[in-house]
Write a structure and sequence with these properties.
single chain; mainly beta; Hypothetical upf0131 protein ytfp; 5-stranded mixed barrel; globular; AIG2-like_dom
Length: 156
């Protein structure tokens, strides 16, 4: 099992969460909530209002999200879903655990003494330069005050 940190449309209550609980795609077990140790710019961009974490460490905010334990099948699905490696790149990032529900079994990665663990995160290094000038968010909600409603894939 691998740890994945999601910060956008795959979180609970967001439009693509349905994929995280679709066991035909693989297994994803909610472990808890966290935020990035480093600051990153989280922007809503493109004609479909997609959330992107730009891989520019030290800029932006500590981005909030959810930590999942996923099997290889789900990880492969997420790679395809996120357009990895072209649109997003899956990299290991340090995530601070804010609230933990996971049960640590043998062989499972645990947070260190500071409550930090490494998780795979889908961020991007392949973005138009003007995205750096967009507003930065610390948390994503497709129904948020930003007024930038996410366009579902089936509606594109």
């Amino acid at each position: 099992m691998a740890r994945v940190f999601v910060y956008g449309t795959l979180k609970k209550g967001q439009p693509n969460y349905k994929y995280m609980i679709n066991t035909a795609k693989g297994l994803a077990k909610f472990q808890g909530r966290g935020r990035t140790v480093e600051k990153y710019p989280l922007v809503i961009a493109g004609k479909y209002n997609i959330p992107y974490m730009l891989n520019i460490p030290g800029t932006g905010h500590h981005v909030a999200g959810e930590i999942y334990s996923v099997d290889d099948q789900m990880l492969q699905f997420l790679d395809e879903f996120e357009g990895c490696p072209d649109m997003y790149q899956r990299t290991l990032m340090r995530i601070e655990v804010v609230e933990w529900e996971g049960k640590g079994g043998t062989g499972e990665a645990r947070a260190d003494a500071e409550g930090v663990m490494e998780c795979f995160v889908y961020s991007t290094m392949t973005y138009p330069p003007e995205w750096v000038g967009l507003p930065y968010h610390d948390s994503y909600d497709c129904y948020g005050k930003h007024g930038l409603s996410y366009v579902l894939r089936e509606s594109r």
